[in-house]
Amino acid sequence: MSGFIERLRLPGRSGDAPAAKENGAAARERGRQASPFWVMVQKEFGDHIRSWRFIILLAIVTLACIGSIYAAVTALKDAQEAATGSGTEMDSSFLFLKMFTVSDGSLPNFLTFLSFLAPLIGIAIGFDSINSERNKGTLSRILSQPVYRDDFLNAKFVAGLLLIAVVVFSLGFLVMGTGLLTIGYPPTPEEFWRVIVALVITTIYVGLWLNLSLLFSVRFRQAATSALSGIALWIFFLVFYGMIVNLISNATAPGDTAAASSIISQQNWMMLLQRLSPAYLFQEAASTLLLPDVRTLNPFVTQDQAYLAINAPLSFGQSLLLVWPQVVAIVAETALSFAAMYVAFMRQEIRSRS
User: Fold this and answer.
1) Are 146 and 101 in contact (CB under 8 A)?
2) pTM
């Protein structure tokens, strides 16, 4: 910790010598040194990488993804054998994307595993980032250096988000590499970009849970309380929120003799309530990008629309246009959670051992 504090003491900002006496060589030396912000980012990133908590969680997520890869490969082989036995040809369109979306039923697919377990990475990274520094007394020591308070908080978020991006993209490339070796089918440029954009959306989605865990870490002094709060919120949106919306839907459902407009209006309100959940938004966005056959996210499609629809998968641009509202909503929720965490931290009084 002492070495980290020394790296934060940049020349020219500690007040040891007047700025007027600083020569050109000292100024150039100061310019070559890393800013306190990036020093803190590097320190946080390294601490996360070396922590047993992160290693254990990463091992669990990796094993789950390997299991989903096995289930996907088995499902594709079964489909190929069934097509060969019936004398037909297996549909090979977007075959590479099926590594992310199909399963033989023994395990969930990669997308389901990712939407289920990825938030735990964000919660595990951030639940004790602030309160552990406060309880150890290092928070006041760091902020007593020539460091802006918001730089400290931003470094926590940036380091966590960089680590999340590394993990998410590593898992995605693991699936892509394994699929390339097992099925021997390389991805087309469109399939590659669909996967990349889906991984970017996943990173933003996990960043939302990182912000929420940082908010709980700012709000609660005990790490156990902030961890339980993050896990409780994760379980609520993953399990109970859909049940609550279904109960509201059943309670407000119009009668059998109601007009079609009232039925559609009620369903639109229920869909709006569902889309308040970040888990539901992520599921819609990621599944639409990885399943080009998804042509609409509207639960109501008239017979004329279904009849006139072209029986062909959407292009990458059209799929991205279809999920753009969901992506914007996820980014907005991430920004709001960051703003709440930022305001809560900036309004706190930081004292020694506080």
Assistant:
1) no
2) 0.85
